[in-house]
Please model this.
Amino acid sequence: MIDVLEEQETGIKLDSKAPEGPLAEKWAKHKFNLKLVNPANKRKYEIIVVGTGLAGASAAAALGELGYNVKAFCFQDSPRRAHSIAAQGGINAAKNYQNDGDSVFRLFYDTIKGGDYRARESNVHRLAEVSVNIIDQCVAQGVPFAREYGGALANRSFGGSQVSRTFYARGQTGQQLLLGAYSALSRQVANGKVKLFPRTEMLDLVIEGGKARGIITRNLVTGKIESHSGHAVLLCTGGYGNVFYLSTNAMGSNVTAAWRAHKKGALFGNPCFTQIHPTCIPVKGKYQSKLTLMSESLRNDGRVWVPKTKEIAEKVQKGEIKAKDIKEEDRDYFLERRYPSFGNLVPRDVASRNAKNVCDEGRGVAASGLAVYLDFADAIKRDSKKVIEAKYGNLFEMYEKIVDEDPYETPMKIYPAVHYTMGGLWVDYNLMTNVPGLYALGEANFSDHGANRLGASALMQGLADGYFVIPYTLGDYLATIGPADKIPTTHPAFKDAEQTVNDTISRMLSIKGDKTAEEFHRQLGHIMWEYCGMARNAEGLAKAKKMIQDLRKEFWTNLRLTGSDMELNPALEQASRVADFLELGELMVDDALNRNESCGGHFREEYSTEDGEAKRDDEHYTYVAAWEYKGPNQPEKLHKEMLKFETVKLTQRSYK
Amino acid sequence: MNIALKVWRQKNSQTPGKMVDYKLSDVSPDMSFLEMFDVLNEELSHKGEEPVAFDHDCREGICGMCSMYINGRPHGPETGTTTCQLHMRSFNDGDTIVVEPWRARAFPVIKDLVVDREAFDRIIQAGGYVSVNTGSAPDANDILIPREIADEAMDAAQCIGCGACVAACKNASAMLFTAAKISQLAVLPQGHAEHQLRAERMVAQMDAEGFGACSFTGACSVECPKSISLDHIARLNREYLGAKLASNNA
Model:
């Protein structure tokens, strides 16, 4: 059975390539059916990997080990700095080392349910299957995961899960996993199989004869526009959370590579599915440049609360009283009250929405009224300060540095912030986009987390895609096309693409207006957060669409840029990224308007149950919305991949 | 707060640089140091001057990209803090703050406060890994590692590769950076097989890059934003000596 999932009028055929057969056998069977590239032929292929986070570094390393020639690109000064490094809490794996009832099927089921039934069963099951191999691989690389006194690996439970399946390295799990992948990558650089291109940004995808043939890049130091040709292009470029300006993403995280590929024909899946993380340090001041996450693991021991009444909250907001002055009976532990079985550990979307609701009721704390308490007093009383310090010491320190308050003495103040984007380039089971030879891995694709990602699953997906999926699926494509199917960078397709990139840069520099890219970015972020953030409605979205269109128009007539293109010019880099965010923003709004239901991180106020929970519409929206670019300022065309659930039964997600 | 800044401006690696004075008013003590630079850069842009180029990315103290030498100290006056985690409340109203790039022969200036740290990548490429191919790992719990050993490896593995150790050192030595990786992998059973070769190769690369010798002043560890201990340099020396005594390449 091949799922051909779309009407044919535009020639785009959305085939998920999900294998037939029982769920647990799909991946094994598929691996056997994939074509192999002869070991001696692997050196005849050139693979382009864009981005060196968990997905990119692991893919480049694994492909280099197999014998392919890899070119790895990143905009940072070293591959080790990709934003995967900032992930704090951990990585899930169905090892069941704790004997607490975990299994591959349970991890699969939790992920599908956590994603509010908007992910592909086949992909998610594969993710759960290979999760166990990831931990083995990382330990073998020398990743210093936390351990018990007996020497076995330690685990903790993490938001949205009732088993302890999360592996961690203090509060720096992403750093340690990335440095593991970076070390494997460095080994392949030393072996001559991977060539690194740091401080190099992809600005266009080259397609010729219907296939991805290479990329156009800008050397960020010299400004030179260059062409790179390959047999396949892997986009491992992360998510687009910075469309909101303020997010937990790094300052440089951007959508440019994925967006330019989208404009060349790759479909964009579920762009409106964005994750708002519940535990971040609240916004303070108009100069703020980014938001800092406080790991979700803190919710294992911290209790979330606000004052019971608006009157008490107002006193806190004015600074007349402090948290410790509020009596126990005047506190509302709202997550424990509303969700007795999951309590403070409800999934991220639920926790965020509830925090927003109590603040909207006027019961928020901090001067802005936009914060809730995360209180460790009971945990310290129960376990001692020493135990809490051993678990979260570095996070408490980070909090104190930023906020100038000691969380051992006074509760943390937290508020939700944009953190992750579940949407991304549409890919099939092989991680290939609808453009042959173009792949998307990790956060850059849409595939595994549905409408909401569970904690500690992003690291898992990045490494699963890079270490254990792409080495198999890429070979199938390469064996089909053969080593000769490549074009040189002197081909007109490359020259034309270079010209377009150069023209766009010249155009930006020639505007000489009054408003900096930074100012446009902040303004766009404000629109997105206000109307396409934690809660959305048709009226607000329609308004946002118009505002974004106007802002985009203004950008191209009033942008202010200094310096030139033939030098290191951070303002130019930012302007080029903001230009893409200004287009993506509108597509996110369109997608949110199209999806007349609430699911996961996408909450439409018109579609909620009586007690304010999200109300899905499985009859009409059990599909992946994959958008096709139709030209500048044209509405994009919607394609639907209907999701088929053969194993799990769709139910109302409940954490009560 | 009112702040006076003296900032190193240098157009590119071929042009000589100089200190340039700037004045900023209305600086909030809650701003991060880099947010203060954002404000300066916005002002410069609006005046038609070129903004100050500086490296930064995660702004939460983990990517290791930010690298400012502030009032004669890498990452400024606070200990255990990166530039991005430094806040203006660490300074006083009316202060003059001097900001320079990392100064080291192995870290050439690219522009303004941005330096080239690829030498660090090449040190890691020389041996900062365990040679294990993807897919060939045994079960993660097959080799038990005592908690103290895992903790010690983690203490070393925390290095963010920012280069503050080099900037702090009067010899611009990269010993703390190199030691952190050698030590992490030397204490773990997974890294043991190659521990001698690794020590030899990484030290040789470090020397080839033009980093200076270590005279064990300890400035690196004091200025390290992750407070990585000098013990790891001691372990590097032991590893290196052991490797050289047993080596065929001696």
About this structure: The first strand of chain A starts at residue 46 and ends at 50. Residues 202 and 217 of chain A are 4 Å apart (CA to CA).
